Amino acid sequence: MTTKVKVLLIEDDKSITSFVTTALEGSGYKVTNASKGREGVSLAASFCPDIILLDLGLPDIDGIEVLKQIRSWSNVPVIIISARTKEQEKVIALDLGADDYITKPFGTGELMARIRTSLRHIHTKTPGHIYRALDLEINFEKRMIRLEGKEVHLTQIEYQLLTLLAENSGRVLTYSYIMNAIWGPYMDNNNQILRVNMANIRRKIEKNPAQPQYVFTEIGIGYRMLENEYQI
Ligand code: CA
Question: 168-184, pLDDT tens digit by residue?
């Protein structure tokens, strides 16, 4: 059975719409486009997309408003596409439930990778019992981390932090999302405790903590862990 994955592209820029549509249709996706926000919201309901690509700068209502409306009734993966480089806006969108973002200009390869990651996460909330990428392996059942086959010892908080990122590997998690997940909603907004713990984790798992291979900093936004290579 070959049911095409349905993509709703909410974007008013014609050249981007044409480029993305050509690329996605060439890869076997079915694409529908809305050039306005309200049209996007109504197509999100009637077209039943498997994934939505959403521009933030739309002519009628803001992309953030479109996201809020869609999120009030749907968990469909939403990837923000935006020319805007303002980190704060991406953070707002991610905290409102966007799955990821991609910044214009972007290439086909990057777009496809983001779509695959978001679709995979809706089907498997956790990557099975094992995370594996390069020389790092996390066994969630045994609560064991190995780097080049040797066990790595993390504190309780470091372990929670690393497994949260590993369970969402390939996706960016915002600082506030991580803070809330690990320390709870009553922690103040100072990310210092998060940075300290991340520095400790990097010292333990990265060959060169200044040039990480496993946990990447998305400046002003959060962290993204290298995608799990271990597919079941
Ligand atoms: Ca636009």
Answer: 999 999 999 999 999 98
